[in-house]
């Protein structure tokens, strides 16, 4: 903006506040309008010169003022324009905005009524557990929508199984505002991650941040599935543990919720707090991760399947298997299983 125009606006409104912007008048048009009021005997060239505008800029401002009905042709001089008295022009602009606001408000109220009708019509079909206490929802978008609904309803407790291993920076960043909001409201948040997150610095940093905010975090070698329980009344369970974005089941059946809460408490008791370093079991000399890998090996799981369950790479599992073979003094997986049963690391068929 030209120097004189900037000084004009700054001198008229300290701090650069533009008084008439709320009425749809830009700073150049406002300066021209005020100059016309102060110098009604002038013409376009005079007003442009006073504001250090080009005549083209001044005429463009006049066009905008004309559309707002703030200037009109002079009755005394047909070739000149005059500024409309602000008591009339600005009042008319304000009345127009009030009419537009009233129309918008009426539109909002109509929309609100339509939304209320839609909720009343479709809520029985889309409410969690409609009819039976169980509802299947398909696709990641529907899951995210359901999570938003559940998160808005939580009052006291938020329980989570978080399989999948280390979290992506995008996911942790996106979850922080919601987590902070829930924790600041006094919601008790308990989350169980996989032990594998302990080797991922960004995920550990996020988990430590959650603890600082008041959350409780523990880890365990494997988790059965992704699970969220809200206030011990509603749960969300992944329909496919290997593809958690494919679909989910919303549960509000009281009996099933009781079982899910019991499962969570059982896993919580066996999980390690985040600040506690997992130590080998004195009876076996195996860490919980090694013991879980051994148990999955005995069930015939492949390296890839074990890696998925534990949230680590197949390469990491191959190293774990190699360490187990060495610890059990075995040359094969089969021999490792035999030695594990003999040493009571695993139950025998007769147990």
Structure, explained:
With 351 residues, the chain is an alpha+beta fold. It folds into four domains: 3-84, Arc Repressor Mutant, subunit A (Orthogonal Bundle); 86-126; 134-273, Endonuclease Chain A (Endonuclease, Chain A), CATH 3.30.870; 288-342, Arc Repressor Mutant, subunit A, CATH 1.10.10. The protein has 13 helices and ten strands. The strands form two sheets. An eight-stranded mixed beta sheet has the order 3-9-8-7-4-5-6-10, sandwiched between helices. Strand 7 (227-230) and strand 8 form a beta hairpin. Helix 2 packs across helix 4 and helix 7 packs parallel to helix 8. The N and C termini lie far apart (87 Å). Residues 1-17 have low confidence and may be disordered.
> In percent, how much strand structure appears in the residues?
5-15%
Given the helix and strand composition, which structural class is it?
A: alpha+beta
Could you state the CATH homologous superfamily of the largest domain? Endonuclease Chain A
Can you identify the CATH class of the largest domain? Alpha Beta
Could you tell me the radius of gyration in angstroms?
Answer: 35 Å
Oligomer: single chain
Q: How helical, in percent, are the residues?
A: 40-55%
Write out the strand line-up for the largest beta sheet, numbering strands in chain order.
Answer: 3-9-8-7-4-5-6-10
Main sheet, how many strands, which sense, barrel? 8 strands, mixed
Assign the CATH architecture of the largest domain: 2-Layer Sandwich
- The tally of domains stands at 4
Distance between the termini: 87 Å
Individual helix count: 13
Element pattern in H and E: HHHHEEHEHEHEHEEEEHEHHHH
Low-confidence segments, given as residue ranges, are 1-17
The total beta strand count reads 10
CATH topology label of the largest domain? Endonuclease, Chain A
Shape: elongated
Mean pLDDT: 78
């Amino acid at each position: 903006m030209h120097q004189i125009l900037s000084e004009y606006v700054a001198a008229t409104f300290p701090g650069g506040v533009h008084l008439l912007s709320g009425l749809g008048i830009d700073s150049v048009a406002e300066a021209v309008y005020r100059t016309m009021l102060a110098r009604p005997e002038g013409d376009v060239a005079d007003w442009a010169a006073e504001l250090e505008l080009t005549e083209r800029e001044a005429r463009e401002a006049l066009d905008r003022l004309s559309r707002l009905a703030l200037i009109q042709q002079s009755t005394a001089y047909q070739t000149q324009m005059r500024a409309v008295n602000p008591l009339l022009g600005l009042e008319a602009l304000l009345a127009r905005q009030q009419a537009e606001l009233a129309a918008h408000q009426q539109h909002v109220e109509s929309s609100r009524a339509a939304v209320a009708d839609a909720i009343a019509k479709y809520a029985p079909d889309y409410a969690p557990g409609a009819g039976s206490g169980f509802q299947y929802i398909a696709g990641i978008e529907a899951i995210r929508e359901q999570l938003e609904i559940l998160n808005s309803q939580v009052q006291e407790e938020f329980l989570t199984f978080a399989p999948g291993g280390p979290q992506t920076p995008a996911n942790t960043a996106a979850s922080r505002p919601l987590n902070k909001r829930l924790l600041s409201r006094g919601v008790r948040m308990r989350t169980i991650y996989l032990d594998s997150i302990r080797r991922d610095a960004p995920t550990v940093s996020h988990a430590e941040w959650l603890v600082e905010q008041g959350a409780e975090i523990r880890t365990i070698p494997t988790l059965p599935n992704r699970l969220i329980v809200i206030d011990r009344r509603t749960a969300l369970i992944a329909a496919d543990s290997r593809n958690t974005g494919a679909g989910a089941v919303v549960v509000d059946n009281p009996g099933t919720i009781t079982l899910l809460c019991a499962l969570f408490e059982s896993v919580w008791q066996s999980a390690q707090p985040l600040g506690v370093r997992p130590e080998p079991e004195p009876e076996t000399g195996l860490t919980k991760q090694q013991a879980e890998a051994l148990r999955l090996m005995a069930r015939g799981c492949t390296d890839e399947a074990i890696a998925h369950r534990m949230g680590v790479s197949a390469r990491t599992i191959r190293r774990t298997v190699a360490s187990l073979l060495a610890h059990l003094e075995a040359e094969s997986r089969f021999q490792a299983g035999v030695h594990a049963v003999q040493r009571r690391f695993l139950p025998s068929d007769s147990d």
